[in-house]
Amino acid sequence: xxxxxxxRWRQALFWISMPLGGLAILVIVGLGATxxxxxxxxxxxxxxxxxxxxxxYTDITTRASVSASRxxxxxxxxxxxxxxxxxxxMVDGTPSTAWRAPGDATDVAIVFTLPEPVRxxxxxLVPGYAKQDPATGVDRFTQNRRISRARWVFEDGTSVxxxxxxxxxxxxxxxxxxTGRILLQVLATxxxxxxxDFTAVSDTQIVASS
Length: 210
Description:
This is F5/8 type C domain-containing protein. The chain crosses the membrane at residues 12-38. It comes from Parafrankia soli. By secondary structure, the chain is mostly beta strands. It has one domain (33-209): Jelly Rolls, CATH 2.60.120. The protein has helices at 6-11, 140-143; strands spanning 34-37, 40-41, 57-59, 65-68, 75-76, 82-83, 99-102, 109-126, 146-154, 159-163, 171-190, 198-201, 203-209. A hairpin with a 5-residue loop joins β5 and β6 (82-83). It is globular and about 45 Å long. Mean pLDDT is 81; it is low at 1-48.
């Protein structure tokens, strides 16, 4: 499914209600300006080593609650253990856990809700399943789809598009916005194995400035 061209979004972008286990996504009307920014990949999976313009930054990822309009069912790993792909895996700081959805996930709404509005300095994610199966050694990153482009949308209607390198590490983009909710939209993915048509996100990061 293709995301509507941005000119359509300028007239009416909204957080639609999507019934899925009580999931409700708030409406935003009147999308403002969009900024297309280059990603800032880190050297590892760390969510605590954000480097940006001079200032004081706080990783507030674990303060956020998260919901996704679609999630893949649990599956078995190489050792026969059951693995879940809940959206909360994106905010647990553990790259070997992941949220996953069937297909290219371009029709999925992922919403992060903070306890209160804050000024953000950066957002980012690990654009795939950053795990090597401990029993079989299979690289889950290349086996599943990886995100190559995504859009972050904020409460004031502004948004940032982020392009990702095809590597299993945290990649961030700078922002300067006050918001209490963030909508993440997958815009494009890189296919994995034909037998694993799933899109995964191991970790996200939300950085506040102070």
